[in-house]
Design brief:
The chain is α/β, with parallel strands linked by helices and 294 residues long. It is 36% helix and 17% strand. The protein is elongated, with a radius of gyration of 22 Å.
Length: 294
């Protein structure tokens, strides 16, 4: 256990380790006992409810040691998803580690908007480009929801692409999701795609100190920060001439960015078709269409 803490005598029981873990996490996380239970369940191969139900059972010493290590790391604010190696997204489990951003619930709105945009499927197939795929959760989810879809997913980070490749194999879509290392739109023929989607870095670097330690200190900064938060959108919309007339583009945006993103998009030759709010009523997804010339 952390800092040499250990129950007083004999083998440690689940309830003993829960008490010690929750105490150690107190003040560091919002729900210390629940998080302690999840971590203990992780090393024991139990669900959270099973941990509570079997509270009087003894814990093998190797599991106790592993649990103590996880508790210490969580107290250091390592994201839970990195500790357990996975995160749920759109009802499915995705592998994650510090090479890629932890999938966020708000990004599910981007998936839903994309699926609505491409329709239910006619059997003719839809071609999607996912810019900055990270863990691959967007590309893979669309491929699973639309079995007739073919997806190209790009990222500049080789580490992120490795995580995405593992998730493609995990969900058996590696034949339909092609991973490509690329910097934004480089070496891509955009007009080959029906829809382009991106959840880009959009946090202002000036907000670094205000972020939660889980994000600030442990997630890949290149997936989070983009100058003043708009650098990615400037580059993307600045390359508007590469898009075909009528081609759709969907992007996730940060809180308070709608007006600035709209202005950049219009300047780049796009029109705003729809804005999707998240559950907190924050503009989260912008659906755009490349204007026809003339």
């Amino acid at each position: 256990m952390p800092d040499g803490q250990k129950p007083s005598a004999g083998a440690a029981r689940i309830v003993d380790l829960l008490d010690l873990g929750a105490g150690y996490l107190s003040g560091a996380v919002e729900m210390p006992r629940r998080e302690a239970a999840r971590l203990l369940g992780e090393v024991l191969g139990l669900e959270e409810a099973q941990v509570y139900a079997r509270s009087d059972e003894d814990v093998p010493e190797p599991a106790e040691v592993s649990y103590g290590q996880l508790i210490r790391r969580r107290a250091d604010r390592v994201p839970m998803a990195y500790l357990v190696g996975r995160r749920e997204f759109y009802g499915r489990s995705f592998e994650v580690d510090p090479r890629a951003l932890v999938p966020r619930p708000e990004t599910e709105h981007l998936v839903e908007a994309t699926l609505e945009c491409v329709g239910a499927g006619t059997g003719t197939g839809v071609r999607m480009l996912d810019l900055g795929t990270g863990s691959g959760c967007i590309a893979i989810t669309v491929a699973l929801e639309r079995p007739d879809a073919s997806v190209v997913a790009t990222d500049l980070s080789l580490g992120a692409l490795a995580v995405a490749a593992s998730n493609c194999r995990r969900h058996d879509v590696d034949g339909r999701v092609r991973l490509v290392r690329a910097d934004l739109l480089s070496a891509l023929r955009l007009q080959a795609f029906d829809v382009v989607v991106s959840n880009p870095p959009y946090i202002d670097i000036g907000e670094w100190h205000s972020l939660m330690p889980e994000v600030r200190d442990h997630e890949p900064p290149e997936a989070l920060f983009a100058g003043d938060g708009l650098d990615f959108y400037r580059r993307l919309f600045g390359a508007g001439e590469l898009f075909a007339a009528g081609q759709r583009l969907l992007v996730e945006i940060g809180k308070g960015q709608l007006d600035a993103v709209r202005e950049l998009a219009v300047r780049g030759g796009f029109e705003v078709e729809a804005v999707v709010l998240d559950l907190a009523a924050i503009a989260r997804v912008v659906r755009l269409r490349r204007r026809r010339r003339g």
